[in-house]
Amino acid sequence: MSDTSGISPADHGRRRSVRRVLVAVFATTVLAAAAATTATLPASASAPGTPSGWSQVFLDDFNGTAGTGVNTSDWQYDTGTSYPGGAANWGTGEVETMTSSTSNVALDGNGNLQITPRRDASGHWTSGRIETTRTDFQPPSGGKLRVEARLQMPNVTGTAAQGYWPAFWMLGAPFRGNYQNWPSVGELDIMENVQGLNTTWATMHCGSSPGGPCNETTGLGNSTSCPGSTCQSGFHTYTMEWDRSVSPEAIRFYVDGVNYQTVTAGQVDATTWSNATSHGFFVILNVAMGGGFPGAFGGGPYSTTEPGHPMVVDYVQVLQAGGSGGTTPPPSGNRDAYSAIQAESYDSQSGVSTETTTDTGGGQDIGYVANGDWALYKGVNFGSSAATQFNARVASGAASGVSGLVEVRLDSRSNAPVGSFAVGNTGGWQTWKTVPANIGAVTGTHDVYLTFSSGQPADFVNVNWFGFGH
C-alpha cells in the first residue's frame, strides 16, 4: 500500500459478461440482474468450497462473538504510526494511529470482521491494521496461489468519504523485521480504494523507488468499477492469482471473477522479478486515513469526513494448486505445432482466465472468452513441411444465438487471420468437442495468437487445447 499505489471455475456463472455489459453499455436488463444478484448475497456468507484441483492453506471466516478481536494465532495487530524503526506514518503519509482496540478491529457476531476508523473529540483518528502471522504464502514451483477476500468497502461516499483508504494487500516476507527494503521485496495490492469512489485498484510494487523498472511509487497497476452494486453498497470478491504454471510467470487480479489487471515476469528484468517474488508473502487488511493516495484524489480527512464507517470482511482464504503437467510452456522456439498446445500455457493474454476442466485428461482450460480477447503462444515450430489444418478443443454454454470466431494469427495480432472457425453452444461450458479448420500454408517458427471475435459482448467459448496438422 504505497503512497500513490495504482494511480496512473466448471460453470462460470459467466460473471465476466457483466463486466462486458458495463464497459460496452449493453443490455440494461443484464446489468440490473447482475446488480440484484450482488445485492442479495448475505453479508455473512460462508467461504466457498475449495475448487477442484486446489487445496486450502488458510481460511478465516471471522466467526465469533460480537465485539471480540481477531484470532491472534492467525493474525497480528500493527499498532501505532509505523513499524518499529520503519518509516513514519506507515511510509504513506496517512494520519491515523492504528490500535488493537475492539472499537477499531472487531468481529460483528454475524461472521464478519469490521475495521472501523474513529475520530475523537480532539480530531485525532484511530483505525485498525492486521496482518497474517504466516509469511509463507507463495505458489509451489509450477503451480498457483490464489488469495481472496469477500468484503464491503466502507459504505460512505462524497465529502464524507474524503481521506478513507481501505485495502486488502500483501507484502514480501523479507519486509517483516527489516522495514527498509520496500519496494524491492514486492507488494501485491489486491484491493485498494480511496474517497468512497466506486473503483478498485490492483497493483504490483517492485524494483526501486522512485522510478525504477516498476514505475514507483505508482507501481504496475490498473483499476475498474465494481460489477453490479457499487464497491461501497455491496459485498464483492477480490482475488489475486499468482501463476507459476505459465511462462512468463503471471500475477492476475480480479473483482468478482473479472480479470482487470495482469503483471508478468516479462514486464521487468529477471533480477527485479526474482527479488520481488522468490519468497513468501503475508496478507494485510487495514483502513488508513489520509496519505498520498487519497491526496491524489482531493485529500482528507477533513472536518466533513465522517468517522465510523467500517470495511466489512466476510472471509479471507488462501488456496494453492500444485504444478499440473503440460501447463508450463517450453522455451521459446520449442513448441511443437503438431502436438497439443495447452491453451492455459499462454505467454501472455488479455481477457481470458484459467479454470479447472472436466475434459479428458483434466488440467485447465481458458475461459470467460469473449469478443476482443486473445492469448499468445510464443515460438511455435511448424517445420519445413507446411501446416494446412488447425483444430481446437472447445466448449460453450452460450445462450441461443450467441457465437463467435476462434482465429489464428501469426506474429502480430494486427495481421490477418490465417484461419478460423465459428463456435456456438456445444451443450455446456464443459461439454467439449474438437473443431477442425483449414488454414493457409504455414512453415517455420512463429508466435501464434488465438484471437476471439464476436458481434456481441457475451462470453462464447472455452478452449482446452489446440494444434495443427498437414
Overall geometric form: elongated
- Separation, N- and C-terminal Cα atoms: 53 Å
- The low-confidence parts are 4-41, 324-333
Cα gyration radius (Å): 23 Å
Describe the largest sheet.
8 strands, antiparallel
The count of β-strands is: 30
The helix tally amounts to 4
Percent strand: 35-45%
Percent range for helical residues? under 10%
Q: Kindly state the mean pLDDT as a whole number?
A: 88
Q: Strand pairing plus helix content: what structural class?
A: mainly beta
Word description of this protein:
- By secondary structure, the protein is mainly beta.
- Helices cover 7% and strands 39% of the residues.
- The chain has helices at residues 16-24, 28-39, 270-277, 292-295; strands at 55-60, 75-77, 97-98, 105-107, 113-115, 118-119, 125-127, 129-132, 144-152, 164-172, 187-192, 200-205, 220-224, 236-243, 250-255, 258-264, 281-289, 311-321, 335-336, 341-342, 348-350, 353-356, 364-369, 374-381, 387-396, 404-410, 419-423, 428-442, 445-453, 461-469.
- The strands form five sheets. Strands 1, 4, 5, 9, 14, 15, 16 and 18 form an eight-stranded antiparallel sheet that branches.
- A hairpin with an 8-residue loop joins strand 26 and strand 27.
- The protein is elongated.
- The model is unreliable at 4-41 and 324-333 (pLDDT under 50).
